[in-house]
Design a protein that fits this description.
- The chain has 548 residues and is an alpha/beta fold.
- It has four domains: 63 residues, no CATH class; 66 residues; 239 residues, Rossmann fold (3-Layer(aba) Sandwich); 128 residues, DNA Methylase, Chain A, domain 2, CATH 3.90.120.
- 33% of the residues lie in helices and 16% in strands.
- It contains 17 helices and 20 strands.
- The strands form six sheets. The chain has an eight-stranded mixed β-sheet, with helices on both faces. A three-stranded mixed β-sheet has the order 2-1-3, with no helix packed on it.
- A hairpin with a 5-residue loop joins strand 1 and strand 2.
- The protein starts with a strand and ends with a strand.
Length: 548
Protein backbone atom coordinates (compact mmCIF):
# COMPACT_ATOMS: atom_id res chain seq x y z
CA UNK A 1 0.00 0.00 0.00
CA UNK A 2 1.31 3.43 -0.93
CA UNK A 3 2.44 5.68 1.93
CA UNK A 4 0.46 8.92 2.32
CA UNK A 5 2.93 11.73 3.04
CA UNK A 6 1.53 14.56 5.16
CA UNK A 7 2.99 17.76 6.63
CA UNK A 8 2.33 19.81 9.77
CA UNK A 9 2.56 23.53 9.05
CA UNK A 10 3.67 26.28 11.45
CA UNK A 11 0.03 26.94 12.29
CA UNK A 12 -0.41 23.33 13.41
CA UNK A 13 -2.56 22.42 10.43
CA UNK A 14 -1.77 19.09 8.80
CA UNK A 15 -1.96 19.07 5.03
CA UNK A 16 -1.63 16.54 2.25
CA UNK A 17 0.82 18.81 0.44
CA UNK A 18 3.02 21.61 1.66
CA UNK A 19 0.58 24.26 0.47
CA UNK A 20 -2.59 22.18 0.15
CA UNK A 21 -5.87 21.84 2.03
CA UNK A 22 -5.84 20.68 5.63
CA UNK A 23 -6.43 17.12 6.85
CA UNK A 24 -9.01 16.75 9.65
CA UNK A 25 -8.84 14.35 12.60
CA UNK A 26 -11.82 12.57 11.11
CA UNK A 27 -9.86 12.00 7.90
CA UNK A 28 -6.85 10.73 9.85
CA UNK A 29 -9.10 8.38 11.82
CA UNK A 30 -10.52 7.08 8.56
CA UNK A 31 -6.99 6.45 7.22
CA UNK A 32 -6.09 4.51 10.38
CA UNK A 33 -9.24 2.38 10.29
CA UNK A 34 -8.52 1.58 6.62
CA UNK A 35 -4.98 0.49 7.63
CA UNK A 36 -3.52 3.17 5.36
CA UNK A 37 0.22 3.81 5.84
CA UNK A 38 0.88 7.39 6.95
CA UNK A 39 3.98 9.52 7.36
CA UNK A 40 3.67 12.98 8.93
CA UNK A 41 6.59 15.46 8.87
CA UNK A 42 6.82 18.69 10.89
CA UNK A 43 7.71 21.44 8.40
CA UNK A 44 9.53 23.54 11.06
CA UNK A 45 11.83 20.84 12.46
CA UNK A 46 11.76 18.30 9.65
CA UNK A 47 11.08 15.58 12.24
CA UNK A 48 8.83 12.56 11.72
CA UNK A 49 5.86 13.18 14.07
CA UNK A 50 3.67 10.31 12.85
CA UNK A 51 3.45 8.57 16.23
CA UNK A 52 2.93 11.84 18.10
CA UNK A 53 -0.16 12.58 15.98
CA UNK A 54 -1.55 9.09 15.53
CA UNK A 55 -1.12 7.58 19.02
CA UNK A 56 -3.94 9.64 20.63
CA UNK A 57 -6.21 8.79 17.69
CA UNK A 58 -5.37 5.08 17.95
CA UNK A 59 -6.18 5.15 21.67
CA UNK A 60 -9.51 6.80 20.96
CA UNK A 61 -10.36 4.22 18.27
CA UNK A 62 -9.42 1.31 20.54
CA UNK A 63 -11.52 2.72 23.37
CA UNK A 64 -14.44 3.17 21.01
CA UNK A 65 -14.18 -0.35 19.60
CA UNK A 66 -13.14 -2.45 22.55
CA UNK A 67 -12.65 -0.77 25.90
CA UNK A 68 -16.19 0.25 26.80
CA UNK A 69 -17.54 -1.18 30.02
CA UNK A 70 -20.61 -3.36 29.77
CA UNK A 71 -23.77 -1.46 30.65
CA UNK A 72 -26.08 -3.81 32.54
CA UNK A 73 -29.80 -3.21 32.07
CA UNK A 74 -32.95 -4.90 33.34
CA UNK A 75 -36.37 -5.42 31.81
CA UNK A 76 -39.11 -5.39 34.43
CA UNK A 77 -42.39 -7.32 34.31
CA UNK A 78 -44.08 -4.13 33.07
CA UNK A 79 -41.81 -4.16 30.01
CA UNK A 80 -39.87 -1.08 31.13
CA UNK A 81 -36.07 -1.32 30.77
CA UNK A 82 -33.88 0.45 33.34
CA UNK A 83 -30.17 0.84 34.11
CA UNK A 84 -30.56 -0.40 37.67
CA UNK A 85 -33.23 -2.66 39.08
CA UNK A 86 -35.32 0.22 40.40
CA UNK A 87 -34.04 3.07 38.25
CA UNK A 88 -35.57 5.34 35.63
CA UNK A 89 -36.86 3.97 32.35
CA UNK A 90 -34.57 4.04 29.31
CA UNK A 91 -36.27 5.63 26.35
CA UNK A 92 -36.05 4.56 22.72
CA UNK A 93 -33.95 7.65 22.00
CA UNK A 94 -31.40 6.73 24.69
CA UNK A 95 -31.25 3.18 23.36
CA UNK A 96 -30.56 4.37 19.82
CA UNK A 97 -27.85 6.71 21.10
CA UNK A 98 -26.13 3.89 23.02
CA UNK A 99 -26.24 1.56 20.03
CA UNK A 100 -24.92 4.20 17.62
CA UNK A 101 -22.03 4.90 20.03
CA UNK A 102 -21.18 1.16 20.05
CA UNK A 103 -21.79 0.96 23.81
CA UNK A 104 -21.59 -2.63 25.06
CA UNK A 105 -24.99 -3.60 26.45
CA UNK A 106 -26.33 -6.56 28.36
CA UNK A 107 -30.06 -6.72 29.01
CA UNK A 108 -31.57 -9.26 31.40
CA UNK A 109 -35.25 -10.04 31.90
CA UNK A 110 -35.84 -9.62 35.63
CA UNK A 111 -38.74 -12.10 35.61
CA UNK A 112 -37.03 -14.99 33.77
CA UNK A 113 -33.36 -13.97 34.30
CA UNK A 114 -32.79 -14.65 30.59
CA UNK A 115 -30.35 -12.60 28.52
CA UNK A 116 -32.59 -10.72 26.05
CA UNK A 117 -29.92 -8.41 24.61
CA UNK A 118 -30.21 -9.64 21.02
CA UNK A 119 -34.01 -9.61 21.16
CA UNK A 120 -34.03 -5.93 22.11
CA UNK A 121 -31.08 -4.67 20.09
CA UNK A 122 -32.01 -6.36 16.81
CA UNK A 123 -35.17 -4.23 16.71
CA UNK A 124 -33.21 -1.07 17.52
CA UNK A 125 -30.58 -1.77 14.85
CA UNK A 126 -33.26 -2.35 12.21
CA UNK A 127 -34.97 0.92 13.16
CA UNK A 128 -31.66 2.81 12.95
CA UNK A 129 -30.99 1.31 9.51
CA UNK A 130 -34.40 2.35 8.19
CA UNK A 131 -34.07 5.78 9.81
CA UNK A 132 -30.73 6.39 8.08
CA UNK A 133 -32.13 5.29 4.72
CA UNK A 134 -35.04 7.71 5.14
CA UNK A 135 -32.74 10.56 6.16
CA UNK A 136 -30.65 10.02 3.05
CA UNK A 137 -33.77 10.23 0.93
CA UNK A 138 -35.12 13.26 2.83
CA UNK A 139 -31.90 15.23 2.50
CA UNK A 140 -31.49 14.42 -1.20
CA UNK A 141 -28.12 12.85 -0.52
CA UNK A 142 -26.59 10.56 -3.08
CA UNK A 143 -27.62 7.06 -2.17
CA UNK A 144 -24.96 4.42 -2.64
CA UNK A 145 -27.50 1.96 -3.96
CA UNK A 146 -28.25 0.81 -7.50
CA UNK A 147 -31.39 2.37 -8.95
CA UNK A 148 -34.33 0.32 -10.10
CA UNK A 149 -34.07 0.17 -13.93
CA UNK A 150 -36.17 2.78 -15.72
CA UNK A 151 -38.38 0.22 -17.48
CA UNK A 152 -39.46 -1.14 -14.08
CA UNK A 153 -40.14 2.38 -12.79
CA UNK A 154 -42.31 3.09 -15.83
CA UNK A 155 -44.19 -0.16 -15.22
CA UNK A 156 -44.81 0.89 -11.60
CA UNK A 157 -46.08 4.28 -12.79
CA UNK A 158 -48.39 2.54 -15.25
CA UNK A 159 -49.70 0.18 -12.57
CA UNK A 160 -50.33 2.88 -9.97
CA UNK A 161 -52.33 4.89 -12.51
CA UNK A 162 -54.35 1.92 -13.75
CA UNK A 163 -57.96 1.41 -12.71
CA UNK A 164 -57.40 -2.09 -11.30
CA UNK A 165 -59.55 -2.30 -8.19
CA UNK A 166 -58.71 -4.06 -4.96
CA UNK A 167 -60.43 -7.43 -4.66
CA UNK A 168 -63.14 -6.78 -2.09
CA UNK A 169 -64.29 -10.25 -1.14
CA UNK A 170 -66.47 -8.88 1.66
CA UNK A 171 -68.78 -7.06 -0.74
CA UNK A 172 -69.39 -3.35 -1.28
CA UNK A 173 -67.41 -1.00 0.97
CA UNK A 174 -69.28 2.30 1.46
CA UNK A 175 -67.83 5.55 2.69
CA UNK A 176 -68.93 9.09 3.60
CA UNK A 177 -66.59 11.99 2.80
CA UNK A 178 -66.93 15.07 5.04
CA UNK A 179 -65.36 18.41 4.05
CA UNK A 180 -64.83 16.69 0.71
CA UNK A 181 -63.76 19.73 -1.31
CA UNK A 182 -63.52 18.91 -4.99
CA UNK A 183 -63.20 15.23 -4.08
CA UNK A 184 -59.53 14.22 -4.36
CA UNK A 185 -59.74 11.74 -1.48
CA UNK A 186 -63.09 10.37 -2.70
CA UNK A 187 -61.77 9.76 -6.21
CA UNK A 188 -58.75 7.93 -4.80
CA UNK A 189 -60.86 5.75 -2.52
CA UNK A 190 -63.22 4.91 -5.38
CA UNK A 191 -60.27 4.04 -7.62
CA UNK A 192 -59.24 1.61 -4.88
CA UNK A 193 -62.63 -0.10 -5.05
CA UNK A 194 -64.81 1.70 -2.49
CA UNK A 195 -68.18 3.40 -3.08
CA UNK A 196 -68.94 6.98 -2.02
CA UNK A 197 -72.51 7.31 -0.74
CA UNK A 198 -72.35 10.88 0.65
CA UNK A 199 -70.13 13.94 0.23
CA UNK A 200 -70.47 17.22 2.13
CA UNK A 201 -68.82 20.63 1.80
CA UNK A 202 -69.72 24.30 2.24
CA UNK A 203 -68.14 25.40 -1.07
CA UNK A 204 -70.64 25.49 -3.96
CA UNK A 205 -67.94 25.22 -6.65
CA UNK A 206 -66.42 22.23 -4.86
CA UNK A 207 -69.78 20.48 -4.71
CA UNK A 208 -70.41 21.21 -8.39
CA UNK A 209 -67.21 19.33 -9.28
CA UNK A 210 -67.96 16.61 -6.73
CA UNK A 211 -71.49 15.99 -8.04
CA UNK A 212 -70.32 15.72 -11.63
CA UNK A 213 -67.74 13.07 -10.80
CA UNK A 214 -69.71 11.19 -8.11
CA UNK A 215 -73.10 10.98 -9.81
CA UNK A 216 -74.40 8.15 -7.60
CA UNK A 217 -73.52 9.78 -4.28
CA UNK A 218 -75.80 11.88 -2.10
CA UNK A 219 -74.49 15.40 -1.45
CA UNK A 220 -74.96 18.20 1.06
CA UNK A 221 -73.73 21.75 0.36
CA UNK A 222 -73.66 24.01 3.40
CA UNK A 223 -72.29 24.26 6.96
CA UNK A 224 -71.98 20.73 8.31
CA UNK A 225 -73.55 21.90 11.58
CA UNK A 226 -76.75 22.43 9.55
CA UNK A 227 -76.84 18.76 8.59
CA UNK A 228 -78.91 17.34 11.45
CA UNK A 229 -78.65 13.76 12.68
CA UNK A 230 -82.08 13.07 11.19
CA UNK A 231 -81.13 14.52 7.78
CA UNK A 232 -77.90 12.56 7.85
CA UNK A 233 -79.69 9.25 8.43
CA UNK A 234 -82.22 10.04 5.71
CA UNK A 235 -79.47 10.66 3.17
CA UNK A 236 -77.76 7.38 4.06
CA UNK A 237 -80.99 5.38 4.04
CA UNK A 238 -80.54 1.66 4.61
CA UNK A 239 -76.97 1.55 3.27
CA UNK A 240 -74.21 0.23 5.51
CA UNK A 241 -71.48 2.80 6.30
CA UNK A 242 -68.03 1.20 6.50
CA UNK A 243 -65.93 4.35 6.62
CA UNK A 244 -66.33 8.03 7.51
CA UNK A 245 -63.40 10.08 6.24
CA UNK A 246 -62.38 13.68 5.74
CA UNK A 247 -60.35 16.60 6.97
CA UNK A 248 -61.85 19.76 8.47
CA UNK A 249 -60.45 23.00 6.99
CA UNK A 250 -56.88 23.11 8.22
CA UNK A 251 -56.07 26.84 8.18
CA UNK A 252 -56.38 27.03 11.95
CA UNK A 253 -53.29 24.89 12.47
CA UNK A 254 -51.49 25.07 9.14
CA UNK A 255 -47.72 25.53 9.11
CA UNK A 256 -47.98 27.34 5.75
CA UNK A 257 -50.42 30.06 6.76
CA UNK A 258 -50.40 32.01 10.00
CA UNK A 259 -51.48 29.20 12.32
CA UNK A 260 -53.95 30.28 15.00
CA UNK A 261 -54.78 27.83 17.78
CA UNK A 262 -57.99 29.75 18.56
CA UNK A 263 -59.26 29.69 14.96
CA UNK A 264 -62.97 28.77 15.06
CA UNK A 265 -62.39 26.33 12.21
CA UNK A 266 -60.47 24.08 14.63
CA UNK A 267 -63.81 23.25 16.28
CA UNK A 268 -65.11 21.68 13.06
CA UNK A 269 -63.50 18.39 14.06
CA UNK A 270 -66.28 18.17 16.67
CA UNK A 271 -68.76 17.98 13.78
CA UNK A 272 -66.67 15.21 12.27
CA UNK A 273 -66.86 13.32 15.56
CA UNK A 274 -70.63 13.85 15.70
CA UNK A 275 -71.12 12.26 12.28
CA UNK A 276 -68.90 9.32 13.25
CA UNK A 277 -70.95 8.85 16.42
CA UNK A 278 -74.27 8.96 14.54
CA UNK A 279 -73.24 6.63 11.70
CA UNK A 280 -71.02 4.26 13.72
CA UNK A 281 -68.76 3.12 10.84
CA UNK A 282 -66.29 0.24 11.14
CA UNK A 283 -63.47 2.62 10.20
CA UNK A 284 -62.81 6.34 10.51
CA UNK A 285 -60.10 8.27 8.67
CA UNK A 286 -59.10 11.78 9.72
CA UNK A 287 -56.60 13.60 7.48
CA UNK A 288 -54.99 16.98 7.88
CA UNK A 289 -51.81 19.01 7.57
CA UNK A 290 -48.66 17.83 9.35
CA UNK A 291 -48.79 21.08 11.33
CA UNK A 292 -51.30 19.34 13.58
CA UNK A 293 -48.30 17.53 15.10
CA UNK A 294 -46.64 20.79 16.16
CA UNK A 295 -46.25 21.26 19.89
CA UNK A 296 -48.52 24.33 19.86
CA UNK A 297 -51.38 22.12 18.60
CA UNK A 298 -50.90 19.40 21.20
CA UNK A 299 -54.21 20.15 22.96
CA UNK A 300 -56.09 20.12 19.67
CA UNK A 301 -54.63 16.75 18.70
CA UNK A 302 -55.26 15.26 22.13
CA UNK A 303 -58.88 16.42 21.94
CA UNK A 304 -59.29 14.75 18.54
CA UNK A 305 -57.76 11.47 19.74
CA UNK A 306 -59.71 11.47 23.01
CA UNK A 307 -62.96 12.01 21.12
CA UNK A 308 -62.37 9.02 18.84
CA UNK A 309 -61.23 6.83 21.73
CA UNK A 310 -64.42 7.69 23.60
CA UNK A 311 -66.37 6.25 20.65
CA UNK A 312 -64.52 2.94 20.98
CA UNK A 313 -62.02 3.23 18.13
CA UNK A 314 -58.51 1.79 18.14
CA UNK A 315 -56.21 4.38 16.58
CA UNK A 316 -52.97 4.74 14.63
CA UNK A 317 -51.25 7.95 13.49
CA UNK A 318 -48.80 8.43 10.63
CA UNK A 319 -47.52 11.24 8.45
CA UNK A 320 -47.68 10.13 4.81
CA UNK A 321 -45.74 11.75 1.96
CA UNK A 322 -47.47 11.92 -1.39
CA UNK A 323 -44.37 11.26 -3.53
CA UNK A 324 -44.19 7.77 -1.99
CA UNK A 325 -47.38 6.82 -3.85
CA UNK A 326 -46.77 8.09 -7.37
CA UNK A 327 -47.69 11.76 -6.86
CA UNK A 328 -45.14 14.14 -8.47
CA UNK A 329 -45.22 16.37 -5.40
CA UNK A 330 -43.65 16.49 -1.94
CA UNK A 331 -46.72 16.91 0.24
CA UNK A 332 -47.15 15.69 3.82
CA UNK A 333 -50.48 14.83 5.42
CA UNK A 334 -51.18 13.46 8.87
CA UNK A 335 -53.51 10.46 8.80
CA UNK A 336 -55.37 9.20 11.87
CA UNK A 337 -56.89 5.77 11.22
CA UNK A 338 -59.37 4.20 13.61
CA UNK A 339 -61.22 0.91 13.61
CA UNK A 340 -63.75 -0.94 15.70
CA UNK A 341 -62.69 -4.09 17.54
CA UNK A 342 -62.16 -7.30 15.54
CA UNK A 343 -61.04 -5.45 12.41
CA UNK A 344 -57.50 -4.97 11.15
CA UNK A 345 -56.06 -1.79 9.66
CA UNK A 346 -52.71 -0.47 8.48
CA UNK A 347 -51.05 2.26 6.43
CA UNK A 348 -49.84 1.89 2.84
CA UNK A 349 -46.15 1.23 2.29
CA UNK A 350 -44.08 3.53 0.02
CA UNK A 351 -43.68 2.38 -3.58
CA UNK A 352 -41.71 5.38 -4.93
CA UNK A 353 -38.82 7.45 -3.51
CA UNK A 354 -37.92 4.45 -1.38
CA UNK A 355 -35.63 1.44 -1.20
CA UNK A 356 -37.05 -1.79 -2.64
CA UNK A 357 -35.04 -5.04 -2.48
CA UNK A 358 -31.82 -3.09 -2.12
CA UNK A 359 -32.55 -0.74 -5.04
CA UNK A 360 -33.65 2.88 -5.00
CA UNK A 361 -36.99 3.60 -6.67
CA UNK A 362 -37.05 7.19 -7.88
CA UNK A 363 -40.17 9.37 -7.47
CA UNK A 364 -42.46 10.45 -10.30
CA UNK A 365 -41.23 13.81 -11.60
CA UNK A 366 -43.07 16.96 -12.70
CA UNK A 367 -42.17 16.61 -16.37
CA UNK A 368 -43.81 13.20 -16.56
CA UNK A 369 -47.26 14.66 -15.85
CA UNK A 370 -47.29 18.04 -17.61
CA UNK A 371 -45.11 17.71 -20.71
CA UNK A 372 -47.92 16.29 -22.85
CA UNK A 373 -50.39 19.14 -22.17
CA UNK A 374 -50.87 21.55 -25.06
CA UNK A 375 -50.52 25.25 -24.23
CA UNK A 376 -53.14 26.71 -26.56
CA UNK A 377 -55.91 28.53 -24.69
CA UNK A 378 -59.11 26.57 -24.33
CA UNK A 379 -57.88 23.35 -25.94
CA UNK A 380 -58.15 21.47 -22.64
CA UNK A 381 -60.67 22.16 -19.85
CA UNK A 382 -59.15 24.19 -16.97
CA UNK A 383 -56.04 24.88 -19.06
CA UNK A 384 -56.44 28.59 -19.72
CA UNK A 385 -52.95 30.09 -19.77
CA UNK A 386 -52.68 33.40 -17.95
CA UNK A 387 -49.73 35.76 -17.79
CA UNK A 388 -47.34 35.24 -14.94
CA UNK A 389 -47.66 38.87 -13.93
CA UNK A 390 -48.83 42.06 -15.65
CA UNK A 391 -45.61 43.94 -14.94
CA UNK A 392 -43.16 43.80 -17.83
CA UNK A 393 -40.13 43.98 -15.52
CA UNK A 394 -41.31 40.91 -13.58
CA UNK A 395 -41.68 38.93 -16.80
CA UNK A 396 -38.11 39.92 -17.63
CA UNK A 397 -36.98 38.68 -14.23
CA UNK A 398 -38.72 35.32 -14.67
CA UNK A 399 -37.09 34.88 -18.06
CA UNK A 400 -33.66 35.18 -16.40
CA UNK A 401 -34.24 32.26 -14.02
CA UNK A 402 -33.06 28.81 -15.17
CA UNK A 403 -35.09 25.66 -14.56
CA UNK A 404 -34.99 24.44 -10.97
CA UNK A 405 -33.71 27.72 -9.52
CA UNK A 406 -35.07 30.80 -7.78
CA UNK A 407 -34.06 33.81 -5.67
CA UNK A 408 -33.44 33.39 -1.95
CA UNK A 409 -29.95 34.79 -1.32
CA UNK A 410 -28.09 37.84 -2.58
CA UNK A 411 -25.78 35.54 -4.53
CA UNK A 412 -28.82 34.26 -6.45
CA UNK A 413 -29.83 37.81 -7.34
CA UNK A 414 -26.28 38.63 -8.43
CA UNK A 415 -26.07 35.46 -10.51
CA UNK A 416 -29.34 35.81 -12.42
CA UNK A 417 -30.39 39.48 -12.53
CA UNK A 418 -28.61 42.36 -14.25
CA UNK A 419 -28.51 45.62 -12.28
CA UNK A 420 -31.67 47.01 -13.88
CA UNK A 421 -33.68 43.99 -12.64
CA UNK A 422 -32.32 43.87 -9.08
CA UNK A 423 -35.02 43.65 -6.39
CA UNK A 424 -33.69 46.55 -4.31
CA UNK A 425 -33.48 44.61 -1.03
CA UNK A 426 -31.07 45.50 1.75
CA UNK A 427 -29.81 41.95 2.22
CA UNK A 428 -27.64 42.90 5.22
CA UNK A 429 -30.74 43.66 7.30
CA UNK A 430 -32.47 40.36 6.57
CA UNK A 431 -32.53 37.61 9.16
CA UNK A 432 -29.94 35.00 8.17
CA UNK A 433 -29.29 37.12 5.07
CA UNK A 434 -32.00 35.47 3.02
CA UNK A 435 -35.64 35.65 2.00
CA UNK A 436 -38.08 33.52 3.98
CA UNK A 437 -39.37 31.89 0.79
CA UNK A 438 -37.97 31.49 -2.70
CA UNK A 439 -39.03 34.19 -5.15
CA UNK A 440 -39.34 33.65 -8.90
CA UNK A 441 -38.95 29.90 -8.33
CA UNK A 442 -38.97 28.05 -11.65
CA UNK A 443 -39.66 24.36 -10.94
CA UNK A 444 -37.65 21.50 -12.41
CA UNK A 445 -39.18 18.85 -14.66
CA UNK A 446 -36.72 16.30 -13.25
CA UNK A 447 -38.03 16.40 -9.67
CA UNK A 448 -41.33 16.26 -7.76
CA UNK A 449 -42.73 19.71 -6.97
CA UNK A 450 -42.87 21.27 -3.50
CA UNK A 451 -46.29 21.35 -1.84
CA UNK A 452 -48.92 22.97 -4.05
CA UNK A 453 -50.92 25.27 -1.76
CA UNK A 454 -54.18 27.18 -2.22
CA UNK A 455 -52.57 30.19 -3.92
CA UNK A 456 -50.62 28.08 -6.40
CA UNK A 457 -48.88 31.19 -7.77
CA UNK A 458 -45.55 31.02 -5.97
CA UNK A 459 -44.05 28.69 -8.59
CA UNK A 460 -43.38 29.14 -12.29
CA UNK A 461 -43.48 26.79 -15.25
CA UNK A 462 -40.15 25.01 -15.96
CA UNK A 463 -39.68 26.39 -19.48
CA UNK A 464 -42.40 29.01 -20.03
CA UNK A 465 -42.60 32.47 -18.43
CA UNK A 466 -45.90 31.91 -16.64
CA UNK A 467 -47.63 30.29 -13.69
CA UNK A 468 -49.07 26.80 -13.93
CA UNK A 469 -52.57 26.42 -15.34
CA UNK A 470 -55.29 24.84 -13.20
CA UNK A 471 -55.15 21.72 -15.38
CA UNK A 472 -51.40 21.39 -14.80
CA UNK A 473 -51.94 21.81 -11.05
CA UNK A 474 -54.67 19.16 -11.17
CA UNK A 475 -52.23 16.83 -12.95
CA UNK A 476 -49.69 17.43 -10.17
CA UNK A 477 -52.42 16.47 -7.67
CA UNK A 478 -53.09 13.38 -9.89
CA UNK A 479 -56.71 14.26 -10.70
CA UNK A 480 -58.05 12.38 -13.76
CA UNK A 481 -58.00 14.25 -17.09
CA UNK A 482 -61.80 14.28 -17.29
CA UNK A 483 -62.19 15.95 -13.89
CA UNK A 484 -63.58 19.49 -14.17
CA UNK A 485 -63.22 22.38 -11.72
CA UNK A 486 -65.66 25.29 -11.56
CA UNK A 487 -65.64 28.93 -10.48
CA UNK A 488 -63.06 31.57 -11.36
CA UNK A 489 -59.34 30.81 -11.62
CA UNK A 490 -58.72 31.79 -7.99
CA UNK A 491 -61.46 29.43 -6.77
CA UNK A 492 -60.20 26.60 -8.95
CA UNK A 493 -56.64 26.99 -7.67
CA UNK A 494 -57.90 26.98 -4.10
CA UNK A 495 -59.84 23.75 -4.66
CA UNK A 496 -56.80 22.06 -6.19
CA UNK A 497 -54.44 23.30 -3.46
CA UNK A 498 -56.71 22.07 -0.65
CA UNK A 499 -57.21 18.61 -2.14
CA UNK A 500 -55.76 15.31 -1.01
CA UNK A 501 -53.73 13.97 -3.96
CA UNK A 502 -55.82 11.31 -5.68
CA UNK A 503 -53.09 8.65 -5.76
CA UNK A 504 -52.42 9.13 -2.05
CA UNK A 505 -56.12 8.51 -1.41
CA UNK A 506 -55.99 5.46 -3.65
CA UNK A 507 -53.01 4.01 -1.74
CA UNK A 508 -54.80 4.54 1.59
CA UNK A 509 -57.96 2.95 0.19
CA UNK A 510 -56.18 -0.13 -1.14
CA UNK A 511 -54.36 -0.66 2.16
CA UNK A 512 -57.59 -0.25 4.12
CA UNK A 513 -59.50 -2.69 1.90
CA UNK A 514 -56.71 -5.26 2.10
CA UNK A 515 -56.75 -4.98 5.89
CA UNK A 516 -60.55 -5.20 5.91
CA UNK A 517 -60.48 -8.41 3.88
CA UNK A 518 -57.82 -9.94 6.12
CA UNK A 519 -59.81 -9.09 9.27
CA UNK A 520 -57.29 -9.49 12.11
CA UNK A 521 -55.03 -12.09 10.54
CA UNK A 522 -51.41 -11.23 11.37
CA UNK A 523 -52.44 -7.71 12.43
CA UNK A 524 -52.13 -6.31 15.92
CA UNK A 525 -54.63 -3.69 17.04
CA UNK A 526 -53.14 -0.79 18.98
CA UNK A 527 -54.80 1.66 21.32
CA UNK A 528 -53.37 5.15 21.71
CA UNK A 529 -52.68 6.18 25.29
CA UNK A 530 -53.49 9.89 25.41
CA UNK A 531 -51.40 10.38 28.56
CA UNK A 532 -48.30 9.27 26.66
CA UNK A 533 -48.87 12.02 24.13
CA UNK A 534 -48.84 14.83 26.68
CA UNK A 535 -45.64 16.83 26.62
CA UNK A 536 -44.31 14.62 23.86
CA UNK A 537 -43.04 17.50 21.75
CA UNK A 538 -44.50 16.63 18.38
CA UNK A 539 -42.32 16.87 15.29
CA UNK A 540 -42.53 16.77 11.51
CA UNK A 541 -41.27 13.45 10.14
CA UNK A 542 -42.48 11.45 7.20
CA UNK A 543 -41.91 8.30 9.24
CA UNK A 544 -43.77 9.61 12.30
CA UNK A 545 -45.95 6.75 13.42
CA UNK A 546 -47.09 5.87 16.90
CA UNK A 547 -48.99 2.88 18.18
CA UNK A 548 -49.42 3.72 21.84
Amino acid sequence: MEVINLHRLKSGIITGMKGGGYVTKKMLTSFIEDNQKLKIIDNLTGKDITNEILDPLLEKIQFKNGNLEVLNLWRHSSGIITKVKNGKAITQVIFESLVEKNQKLRIVDKVTNEDITNEILDKILEKIRIKKENLELENNKKINLPELPEEFVQEKIKNVNSENLCDNSNGEFNFVDLFCGAGGLSIGLEQAGMSCILGTDINTYAMQSFREYHKNAETFCGPISSLTDKDLKEKIGNKRVDLVCGGPPCQGFSTIGEGNKDDRRNSLFEEFVRVVRVLGPTYMLFENVSGLLAAKNEKTLNAILSSFKALGYHLKIKVLESQHFGVPQKRKRIIILGCKENYAFDFPKPIFDCVENGKYVRPVNLGEVIDDIATENGEIFNHQVDKATPERISVERISCIPEGRGIRYKKDEDEFFPDKLKLGFDWSKMKEGRLRELRFFRLSRMQPTPTINTGCTQYYHPNENRHFTVRELARIQTFPNNFKLYGNIVSQRKLVGNAVPVLMGKAIGRSLLESFNLKQQDNEVYTIDIEKLKGKGFCYREDYTDKF
